[in-house]
Each structure stands twice: as C-alpha cells, then as structure tokens.
Specification:
- There is one protein chain.
- By secondary structure, this protein is an alpha/beta fold.
- Among the domains are: about 70 residues, Ubiquitin-like (UB roll) (Roll); about 210 residues, Rossmann fold; about 180 residues, Dimethylsulfoxide Reductase, domain 2, CATH 3.40.228; about 120 residues, Beta Barrel (Barwin-like endoglucanases), CATH 2.40.40.20.
- The protein contains 27 helices and 35 strands.
- The strands form nine sheets. A seven-stranded mixed beta sheet has the order 14-13-26-25-24-15-16, sandwiched between helices.
- Helix 8 packs parallel to helix 23 and helix 13 packs across helix 16.
- The chain is globular.
- It starts with a strand and ends with a strand.
C-alpha cells in the first residue's frame, strides 16, 4: 500500500497514480487547463502546480506520481502566487469578452480567473488579433481566445485519430489551424468542442443561443443512430433540446461522440414531421382523426384476416423503435392477427450472421464488450469500415493500433488506412477466395483444439485454396496474403469485426463459414457491426419469422406452448415470411396487408422500382412513422409517432447491452402523436384483444415475465450500468447445430465472373445514417448531397476529376451524381450511398434474395459509368 497525505488528508492507495488523481479521489480539487481525463498527461499549463514537502520546486500534479510517504499541499501561498502568475500570462492575449463569448458560464479560464485573479493586467501591449473563422458548417473558431493548451490537437490526433488540426506558428502568434487551411475537412466528431476549456472552438449550431443557465433540465439517454448505443446528455429548455453532450463517466463511449450523435439530433424538430393521421381517400392521403384511423385499420385488418387468414398479413418492425415497441408489435402480429410474418432489416445481415455463429458456438457468442477490442492482441476486420458504420467502435480499433496491436483489414476501409498493419483490398467479388486462403494457411500453422469435433470435421472439409490461386483470383500478391496469415497466426485472442457486406453477398453463407473457421482457429471474439440502434433488440424481442422473444425458436413446441399459455392463445406453428419474402408475396398476391412500423421499406430495400410495384399491389398498407417518407406515400393509412427523444423505452446494442432510453421532451406528443406501442395497443383493443399498458414500464414488466432471457429485468438494472447479456435471465443452451451448413464444393471458392465488369456497391458515409439523417439540417450542412466514390485509376482512364458529374447505370436504373476520387478503391468498383431522396444506390440494384440467408444479394451488380460534361454532352468510357 502507498500512503500519501494531501492537505493533511491521509490516503491509502494500492498502486501509484498521479497526484492529481489521488487528490480527486480525496475530494480535493486541483485546477487544470491542459489536462483532461480523456487525454494523456501533458503538463503544459502549469495551473496544477503543487508543493511537495522536501522537494525544492513546485511540481505539476498531472505528471508526477505519488510515492509512499509523500506530503502534498495544493493551496499554499507559493502555489497560489504561481497560479496567479500563469493566469496573468494567459490573459495577455486572451480576449476579455466574457459577456459576449458563448463559453461564458462553463469556461475553465473564467472560473480560475475569478478564483485566483489577477484583478488587472500589467501588460500594456495590445492583444493579438485573429479573425473569427466560419469556414466550417458546424464549427466556429475564435483563435483570439485560444490559450495553446493543445487539448483539441491531442484529442484529434491521439484519441480520434483524425489528425486534422495542428498548432501553427510560434510564441504569441501560435494558433490551432487545420492542415488543409480554412475548413477543417475532418470527421466533425466535435470531440474538440468537448475538451476545449475556453471559447476558441465552439458549435455554430449554438452560437449566441446557448448559456448554461438557460438549461432547465438534463436528461441522460442513449444515441438514436447506430448500434453502439453511446450514452449522452440532452440539455433541454422548454420543450426543445438545446444541445447534446457526452457523459464523461458513463456508458461505453466515455465522453466521446461521433458527428451523428453530437449534431444529428435536430431531425426531431424537423418541420417535415407528421402531425396528424392520414387516410387515403380518392387516391390522395388526407388528414383524419385518430378515431377514424383506428376504426378504419381495425375494420380492414379484420376483413382480410377473416377472408384470407392471418398468413395473408405481414408486419415489418424497426431497429429505430424501442424494445418495448417491437415486443408489442410482434405480439400484435402473432396473438391478434395470427401471423408469424414479421421481420425487419435486421434480417438482412445482422440476424442471419448472429444465428449462423450461435448455431456453431452457442447463444451469446457475439455478446462481447466493446472495450475488449482495444485490449485484444489482434484485430481482423471485414465486411465494412467500422469507423463509418460504428464510429466509436472504430475508435477502439484505432486505439489498439496506437498500442501496436496488429490490425488486418480485408476490403476497402478508408478510415483505417493509417492504422492497419496489413491491408488486403481485393478486386470485387473475390473476398471469399482471400478468406479461404487465410483459413487454409492457418490450418497449416495452428493445430485444432479438439474443443468442437463436429465443427472441426466441417473445417477439414473446406476446400483448400492456395496463396497462388487466391492471388490470381483477387489481384492481391500471394506474399501479402501469406503475410496476413502469419500475423493472424500469432494472435491468441483477437477480435473479429464483421460488417454487412460479408453477409449480403452471393457468397454470404460461404463467407460466414470461413469467418466461423477463422474465429475457431484463432480463439477469437466476434463483433457484428450494426448500422441501426436496436437491431439486437429486434432479434431478442422476437421480431423474426421463426423466433420468439428471448431467442426461443418458434419450431420448438414447448416454447410455443409456453408463450401461448401466457397470451391465452395458440401461436401459429408455421414459420412466417422474411421481409424480402413478404415483398415477393405482395407482388404475387399472397400477402394482402402489410403493417410497417418505423421502416422506410420503399427506399431501404434493393430495387426501388420492384419494391414500389409490389407495395402498390397490396390491398392495405399501414405505416407508422415520424416522416412522410417514400413508404408512407404509398400507404392507405399513415400514423404519426413519437421520435427517440419523446418516449421512454430501451435499446439493446451490438454487444447486447440493455440501455434505458429516456424521454427528454414532449415534442410531437403535444400535437397528438403517440408512442408506437400505444397505437398498436389501441388497434388491438378494437380487434378484441386488450393490451393493458399504461406506460413503457408495464411492457418491460411483461417482457420480464414472458421472456426467460429477460427474467426480472427493470429500468433500474439498466440505469446501474454494465447490464450485459445474459442479464439476470436464462440464455438458451444447446449443442452445436451444423445440420444446415453447406460445405463449398471444390473450386467454387475461386469461381470467376464470366467477364470483367464494373460493379456498383453501397457507400456508407460517415455523416449520414439510412434516411433519418436526411432530416437533420446539421448533418446536411456537412454533406448536403450524395456522390459516386471511384478509384483514381478509373477516373484517370475516363478523364473524370473530383466533382465531375457522372452517371451510374445498371439494368435497374440510372443515378447521376458528382464524383469523389479515392486512391485506395479497387478499379472495378464504384460506391453510391443510400441516404438521399431519389438518388440512392438501391434505385440501381436489382432484386436478388439469397436462398439460404434470405438476405438481399448486393454484390455482383454490373454497372456502366459515363462522364457528363457541363454542356450535358455524355462522353462514354
């Protein structure tokens, strides 16, 4: 034990810490300006100076560790005079505009000047002048207030890993500036705003509209964008969210946010929000009352069920809705309408991938804490760039790389170019060959453990792929693939991070098998990237055509009987249709009614024209949403619902952490909008089944009773933190299930396309998420329009420059967009995002469904590229 005395207070410590940390544990405040808990110690501002007995000079408490017997004094006359002198130096050039500055009231320099002085400055020289910069859409810079603490630079370089800004010039002319000059041109995470102690870097969104004393309440909640589930605080005045800030000591993000979480919340107050129910009359959607809408829906669903049976009705749940919403929705489909036709976009990749891995390794194999990524001894990533899909997870990868943990990437991942130990960027449609070669090499290098003999037998049957064959197929030199295999073979407990592209592929099942083999050979931990906030919750709440709440298979009679007894009804035994099968069923006339809760199916499913045609064939469509999106415009009834910040509930993130989503504002509730679950409950009542819920807590209480996995859970458990799978419940234990695993045929892993072609794929921009972000003015100010990402080599061959207009055409359609050149893109691929109205990539992708995974097949879509000159003449290439 280490004994240290600070201001006469004795502390016992188990291991050495800095004097600053020891004082904090003792409840003693030592002022700092350059130090921040997220950042490494710096010792630059000298405000944290303390006096140590038997040490002749004052020492910086943020850099010096305690030693046994040390005696420290933090507020002696000598210390106070030193702090006063340092503040006087800092104020020589600092603008004295506190009443005008937006940092007033939460400025560290202002607080320290009030406490320590000086009351007046002794320097007669004029202050430096530097124009305020408005070059950035959401950040304003005032370098007259900068105190050169370097917090922002260290945050950007050593934590965020973007390295977009630096200290420039010397002495009193030192400022923080972007490398590019003018605009930051960065990831716009805003984490520099979090650490700036003064008003040098501020948000343009809040300029002259925010002061700490304006805030009437602060609500701790969870971000509504991706599957990481970052904790954040919504600062509220009246009935509006004024600002969103990270929680420093709570949640898995530990004070960090991405641009979507920090700035993208303003979609909640978009003027495009729905305010009243709409019913289609004479071909047009017209305003109606809630009672009219409820009666009409109940009547139509009753007629269709009585005439066609419950199997003629399908439902699509949403990963943006809470667990409580989705639980009630699946209950409505199964108990009230008698249909198992329920699915969501989680069924496109997340759910089938998780099911595949759980069938081999057991339930919970993907329930791995995010902080384990940075603590692993190696990282393998494929299927998507985590820095854009799940940015805070991506920071874990960057952090591990800075600690010299080997990082191997397979695929195009621009956010990890500077952080990957080995990058494999194969030609389109060749990822599977590279994976097979890696497995082949690892089998040679790593003996099988014997832990799962049945799966080892399958691994032994995987056709071997040589490094030479993989090179011929993928274009990656055999030495590079072999080098990756060598790096992987040295890992003992790596993290395997898997994105959607590995599943939404014509080789999706082969990819999953090879990734499972890699996991087993390396003793790895699986992380499934999740683009939406509650994909895991959809799975756990039973929003799948063959799964009940708590991860219980519908096919098991005892599970169906248990749920049926609880609901006093018989659960249909036959598995329902997947989302894509439901759309096909609508086109074929098999599905008559579709109830859609919070999902923009007409935009977020490939082959927009086919999907719209299928939806238009339906006898009845109900849409619950917050916007009149592409799907809602096709509906017979549209019901306005509450957004993320306007309701209570819970999300389950990609590591299977249950988190409490709290209501921050009334918002659209004041205009009559309702929670999704409340709408469903009312329609259920009108169809003869009472759902007696007064609030979300009642629903959670029922989930805790009916789902063995969620046995006894409460919001209090979530609020306590670290509420991870299996919670307090009973996970499903079962043996390895390999019956449905197909062994690839010899040579199939190296199958080549009949001809060389250009392919179009999905771009996942950092600044947008599905179609929700298109209603955020802040995010649109950063990236206002889509683009086509293509390789510099292809652009040079076709004389295309950055920003030139190009047309991407396929058999399904054409989109015209500006070009964005990327030196790391393979030449045979172009990428288009699916976020912007009328210009999404799914407009040019045809309808193809994988027979085994029921996922859309999104690779292999051949395209042509044409440059469009300014005079609208087209030049073929």
């Amino acid at each position: 034990m280490i004994t240290v005395t600070i201001n006469g207070k004795k502390l016992l410590l188990e291991k050495p810490v800095t004097i600053l940390d020891a004082a904090k544990r003792a409840g003693i405040h030592i002022p700092t300006l350059c130090h921040h808990e997220i950042l490494e110690a710096f010792g630059g501002c000298r405000l944290c100076l303390v006096e140590i007995e038997k040490v002749p000079r004052l020492q910086t408490s943020c850099t010096m560790n305690v030693t046994d017997g040390m005696v420290v004094w933090t507020e002696t006359e000598k210390v106070v005079e030193a702090r006063k002198a340092m503040l006087e130096f800092l104020l020589i050039n600092h603008a004295l505009d506190c009443p005008y500055c937006d940092k007033a009231g939460e400025c560290d320099l202002q607080d320290l000047s009030m406490k320590y002085g000086p009351a007046a400055g002794r320097f007669a020289e004029g202050k430096r002048k530097h124009p305020e910069s408005y070059d950035d859409p959401i950040i304003v810079r005032n370098m007259e207030r900068c105190i050169s603490c370097t917090r922002c630079v260290r945050m950007c370089e050593r934590v965020q890993g973007d390295s977009a800004i630096s200290m420039v010039n010397r002495t009193s002319k030192t400022f923080v500036e972007p490398f590019s000059g003018g605009r930051y041109n960065c990831e716009y995470c805003g984490n520099c705003l979090t650490v700036c102690p003064v008003g040098a870097i501020m948000s343009r969104l809040h300029k002259h509209t925010y002061r700490p004393w304006y805030i009437e309440k602060e609500v701790n909640t969870v971000c509504s964008y991706c599957g990481v589930g970052c904790s954040l605080t919504a600062q509220v005045r009246g009935d509006s969210i004024v600002r969103v800030v990270p929680e420093m000591e709570k949640g898995l993000n530990k004070g960090l946010l991405c641009n979507r979480g920090r700035f993208g919340y303003d979609y909640v107050t978009s003027p495009q929000r729905l305010k009243t129910p709409l019913i289609r009359k004479e071909g047009e959607l017209q305003q109606a009352t809630w009672s009219e809408a409820f009666a009409f829906i109940a009547q139509k669903l009753k007629e269709i069920k009585e005439k066609e049976g419950g199997s003629a009705i399908a439902g699509i749940a949403s990963a943006r809705c809470t667990n409580e919403d989705n639980y009630v929705f699946q209950k409505f489909l199964r108990v009230v309408l008698g249909s198992n036709n329920i699915d969501s976009v989680a069924g496109f990749a997340f759910a089938p991938a998780q099911r595949f891995f759980e069938n081999i390794f057991g339930q919970g194999v993907t329930a791995n804490p995010l902080h384990g990524i940075s603590r692993s001894d190696g990282i393998f990533i494929t299927g998507a760039d985590p820095t854009t899909v799940n940015p805070i997870l991506g920071l874990q990868v960057r952090g591990a790389s800075r600690k010299r943990v080997p990082v191997v990437t397979l695929g195009h991942m621009p956010g990890l170019v500077r952080f990957a130990t080995q990058r494999l960027v194969p030609q389109p449609l060749t990822d599977t060959a590279v994976l097979a070669a890696l497995v082949t090499e690892l089998i040679k290098r790593r003996p099988l453990s014997g832990e799962k003999p049945a799966f080892e037998e399958i691994i032994g049957k995987i056709p071997p792929v040589s490094l030479k064959d993989a090179e011929e197929r993928s274009g990656i030199p055999a030495g590079e693939i072999g080098g990756c295999a060598e790096i992987l073979s040295g890992m003992t407990n790596p993290a395997l991070i898997i994105g959607r592209d590995s599943v939404q592929s014509s080789r999706g099942q082969e990819n999953l098998l090879l990734l499972a083999a890699l996991t087993y050979l390396l003793n790895g931990r699986i992380y499934l990237l999740s683009e939406l906030p509650n994909e895991q919750g959809l799975v756990d709440m039973g929003c799948l055509p063959d799964m009940l709440p708590g991860g219980r298979p519908l096919a098991v009679e005892s599970f169906r009987k248990r749920y049926g007894e609880f609901f006093s009804t018989e659960i249909p035994a036959a598995p329902g249709l997947s989302l894509m099968e439901s759309i096909e069923g609508a086109k074929a006339g098999k599905i008559k009614a579709l109830y859609i809760m919070g999902e923009n199916v007409a935009y977020n499913v490939p082959d927009t024209a086919f999907v719209k045609e299928a939806l238009s064939s339906l006898e009845f469509i109900v849409v619950q949403d917050i916007f009149l999106n592409e799907t809602a415009r096709l509906a017979h009834v549209v019901l306005p619902t509450l957004a993320w910040s306007e309701k209570e509930g819970s999300y389950t993130n990609l590591e299977r952490r249950l988190q409490h989503v709290r209501k921050a504002v009334e918002g659209a509730r004041s205009s009559g909008s309702m929670e999704d679950w409340r709408i469903i409950a009312e329609i259920s009542r009108m169809l003869g089944t009472e759902m007696k819920y007064s609030d979300a807590g009642d629903i959670l209480a029922e989930i805790a009773k009916v789902s063995p996995l969620h046995k006894g859970i409460t919001y209090g458990d979530m609020d306590a933190g670290e509420f991870l799978w299996p919670y307090k419940g009973e996970p499903l234990r079962h043996d390895v299930s390999i019956a449905g695993i197909e062994i690839p045929e010899a040579g199939s892993l190296l199958k080549k396309p009949e001809k060389e072609a250009l392919y179009v794929g999905i771009e996942r921009p950092l600044f947008h998420s599905a179609t929700q972000s298109r209603s955020s003015s802040a995010l649109n100010s950063i990236l206002p329009e889509p683009y086509v990402r293509l390789s510099r080599a292809l652009a040079q061959r076709m004389s295309i420059a950055d920003g030139d207009s190009v047309a991407v055409s396929t058999s399904a359609g054409t989109v015209e967009l500006p070009a964005l050149l990327d030196p790391d893109m393979p030449e045979g691929m172009v990428l288009v995002a699916n976020n912007f109205a009328d210009r999404g990539v799914f407009r040019v992708m045809s309808w193809r469904m994988h027979a085994a995974t029921k996922s859309p097949v999104l690779d292999g879509m051949e395209a042509t590229l044409r440059k469009i000159d300014r005079k609208t003449a087209e030049v073929s290439g």
